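Please produce the structure of this protein holding 1-deoxynojirimycin.
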Amino acid sequence: MIEDLWYKNAVFYCLSVETFMDSNGDGVGDFEGLTRRLDYLHGLGITAIWLMPFQPSPGKDDGYDVTDYYDVDPRYGTLGDFVEFAHGAKQRGMRVIIDLVVNHTSDQHPWFQSARSDPKSPYRDWYVWSKKKPANADEGMVFPGVQKTTWTRDAKAGEYYFHRFYEHQPDLNTANPHVQAEILKIMGFWLQLGVSGFRMDAVPFVIAEKGAAVTEPKQQFGMLRLFRQFIQWRQGDSIVLAEANVTPEENINYFGDDGDRLQMMFNFHVNQQLFLALAQERAEPIVKALDDTRHLPDGAQWGLHLRNHDELDLGRLGEEEREQVFAAFGPEETHQLYHRGIRRRLAPMMDGDLRRLKLAYSLMFTLPGVPVVRYGDEIGMGDDLSLPERYCARTPMQWSDEPQGGFTKSDKPVMPVIADGPYGYRYLNAADQRRDADSLLNWLERLIRMRKEMPEVAWGAHTALDTGTPEVLALRYDWRNNSVLFLHNLSNSPREIAFRTGRDGAPLIDLLGHDHREVEKGEAFRVLMEPYGLRWYRVGGLDYLLRRTEI
Ligand code: NOJ
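Below is the modeled complex.
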């Protein structure tokens, strides 16, 4: 496989333009502000930026309710500003992918307005209608507890329309060839403006059969092939990263048996099992999840995240397991959401314990796939639980100890900046952490640098080694005759482990510290792991760089 599949060994950083950096003092983040922060991202070692929706929107679902797919919301700037940003990212060697939200539009989108106003409108069939309220209208809500139904009557249309998500997000009838053609056109538009692909929102719903008569919607996987073919025809190195929280058995349908559908998916299975493992302080859930999701077609890759902008969805864990994760990381009712997840940010989930935060990060960077860092997590930002639903974890980036955390000169930021308590901007901000050699930010920067020098994780095959200690995960990767090994102690107590690397006699070089190891042939390595400790080793000595370039 050729190494210039850029996404195979990328480091993604996800951000919302609205809450990243305000350049003009109106309280709203904008493209100009983001462009000024490109050097920060580049310095951190990010290789690809994922922008959350920034198109015009009434903002009832933080931009996941689009009214115009071909523009920038004027609050964030202009298309010109977008292109400047895209150019700036390219100059620094960073790719850009953007959210593609085409399962639904906003109900304010002119297409829906036309569709509801006139049964003969060319856009009528772009949405999903029913004369009568379908029997299953109170099933399948994505936001239980907040969303009441999936079919709502529109007085003007005199019919019910389908919406998998909130009532103001009517589903597009994606089986309609005109809608499909429009989706391609939207992708083509942004490719032309410099993006390298899309994080496709809600993919299982985009490709599901929709309609009042559909009781068990089947997925139209052929559509994924169409998307793939189109973007690659337009621009060979463009990708889709799918948001599809499906079972391990279903994953392959999204990649395609021959890898002819989407290039990347978030590994939601590993994500949930990772938090279970952290809660139980046991490696096994991770080992099993890696096995469940081991087989990928050539050229496919996993995106790995810890927390994203939504709740930590634990919906696929057993009830008892979910309760264990709740008890460990989100015990209070206000921490939980939609009866299935945790809405807190990563740092408060870990009680601000730096050892545990680093452990979680290190796992994300060393499991098979590529890491997707969420803005603010690099400095350990907190949440504001007084904000509704998922907004609690979407507060503005804390740049400095200046008013409003340096995010804006306005005293009316678009979202409240966290000011008080241990996560407030006076104590926790990027500027301070840059000056502190021992900060989370500087640690993460080093981690990213090292991870980029370990292509084995992205390209190689992984094996879980037996450490004789259930709390310690030992993962070895092999690729082109090189091996790396990662150890993680998931428990809060020290653990001494003994293991064989499988490469007899080869020394272990500690890449993050000085705990190098050598053993006689036939002996087992012994390592004393501190509570929540971690080790990144290269197996086999320092000639790796030389050997790698020889190949
Ligand atoms: C998934 C997105 O991540 C979420 O934030 C959004 O509310 C829904 N899709 C609907 O677009």
